[in-house]
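Worked Example 4.2. Consider the chain below.
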Amino acid sequence: MGGRAVILLGEGEPAAAKRRLLERAGAEIVGEEASAALAIVAIEEDAEALAAITRLKARGVLVNAVDRPKHCDFTLPAIVDRSPVIVAIGTGGASAGLAAALRQRLETLLPATLGPLTERLSAMRAAIRLAFPTLDDRRRALGAAFAEGGALDPLRAAPEAVNVWLERPDAAAARRVTIRLRSSDPDDLTLGEGRALALADRIYHRADMPAAILDRARADAVRIVADAAPDNGDAGVTVWMEWA
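Applying the procedure from the previous section yields the following structure tokens:
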């Protein structure tokens, strides 16, 4: 919204909260009669709010109506800002309180170093390409580095970790992982199993594997229906899935 005019109507804390959000986004806050494509109506009294919404929509203005999701043309997500990393949490207007609660949890989870780490990765892009010339090598190496406890674990690593990692470039070696499912519920996967699926280059599985489990894998991972574990040693991560 940087530099864009946004109409804001209302008094009290709901309007003040929206004003803070708009100011943080760099919007130009204007009154109802001004020319703008977007408006936020934070009026608590129903009749007054609905009248304002009607007037604005008659002008073709897109409206966000606080606590009135049925009248919203757009919603504003809760934002976790670790620039250039931005996490937006929306519920489609169903519950702004839930979005805010999730934002508060993520604020404590995502460290202040995440932004500088991302900027360092961007600055070192050419060096990363040099260390890992092929796309597959880069994806595997970065996937392993970003994993929990890895050299570039985004929840722990400082920006300087990128340089240290590049001093010892080591493309991810061929690795095979066996996952023995205990149920068809993807939430029963262990952290290690979920991480293996997220990094897998190819997945061998029996025909009766639940789609909900397979959906936890990378979208571009090769999926191969098989009756037994493979005996090849292809590069990257190969996962064999069977029932326990």
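The radius of gyration is 24 Å. Strands lie at 5-9, 28-30, 38-41, 62-65, 78-82, 85-89, 175-181, 202-205, 222-225, 237-243. Compare this with Example 4.1 before moving on.
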